[in-house]
Amino acid sequence: MTPLGTIGSMPTVDKQIVILGAGLAGLTCALELARAGVKPTVLEREAIVGGLARSYSEDGFTYDLGPHRLLIHDADQVAEFQRLLGGELLHKERKSRIFLQGRFFHYPLQVGNAMFSMPPATTARILADYAWARGRGLLRPSADRSFEEWVESRFGRTLYEIFFKQYTEKAWGIPCSRISADWASQRISLLSLWDTLVKSLRKAGNQPRTYASSFYYPAQGGIGALCRAMAQEVESLGGQVLCGQAVTGINRKGQRISQVRAGDQKFACDELISTIPLNDLVKLNPRAVPAPVIQAADSLRFRAIVFVYLFLNRPAIADDHWIYLPEEQFAGNRLSESVNFSINNAPAGKTVLCAEITCDVGDATWNTTDAVLAERVSADLQRMGFADLHPADIVDIRTHRAPEAYPIYDIGYQERVNTVLAYGESLSNFMAIGRNALFRYNNMDHSVEMGRRAAQALLDRQDRKSAAQVATESQYFG
After folding, report:
1. Residue range of the domain that includes 185
2. Are 331 and 276 contained in the same domain?
3. Which residue from 50, 186, 326, 379 could staple onto 167, CB 3.0 to 4.6 Å apart?
4. pLDDT at 330 over 50
């Protein structure tokens, strides 16, 4: 066994380590520590573990907060998750589509196939706009500051408006001209229209860069089964995972955090790992935080999601893992059915359909009643041509609201994020990991790796900055 490290002069196993948030990053960190003999305390504000990767089960139905997929490329990691889940880890071939202008297109977007299946006049306009953008770029290269500039310079104005603009503005609630180009480079699978056309001519099927065509998913219990298994093992090794414990404050001694407050409880800490939203961090001890840091944190925003679930007394309406709905006529942004991830997620002959509706906390959508939201989702299905779905098929509805679903990459966000993270780094016993704490729209596998690296850092086996470096390189996250 690798010998345990030390932090300062105190052995690691004697340290009081507090972790904020029982999502994948926090629980991975806790589990790594617990297996090394440390007994961490994990504080989670929700009633169950999992964060955005949590699942619910009722009346034989299991459903997640929207579609989730585990992208695992390491055989040892697959074996580890199989062990945690009792061997029940499914390997699925991904199927996802976009419904646009009354038709389905493959996702990630096979632009070449989609473009040449459009009316000839539209295809001609796409090619002309691309030629114009290409020529202009040779004379005056695009600054690529915004999402709009990044896409237009690579695909032309027409294709940008047809395929990219609608969904992006609908999802984020702000114009594409205000969204950072970082979002495009991480989430658009093809480098340019020329890249698309070359691959089409070579009959390569528009294969996107590093496209994940398959994924893993638990056979039982939804995606949340993974976090539940982690939490159980942490507790079996002597750690604590406390749900319903929203953190309300932290106390400092100099440049160290000495105590965390949650409800009427206080937790002494020698090390603090945070996975909670980055802008909430500074609110836990505002008098000790410099004004520029507070200003930067206050300007960081998250996009919220209302998840609407229709429990249907009928088989799955489609075999997709998810379907994107970019047009404004649809209330939802994306549809998914948990039974397509595992047949064990619903009783035989039944399904649960999930619609994700992006919004802002406190706006009209956030405050709309469940019944009205269900009516809107049902209307979406009718517009998509699922006319055989009748009101009598809907046996129940549920909603869940996630206030911090997506960090909003508006222009200039990175400078503000760096300001807040620099404050965190000034605290000698603090680390931020995970999507919300780093304000980074990363995948599940990234969060797992962050948690693992954070634990290794506390065991003196890895640099303390290593966890925050996950998913920072220029890459496609699809």
Report:
1. 111-201
2. no
3. 326
4. yes
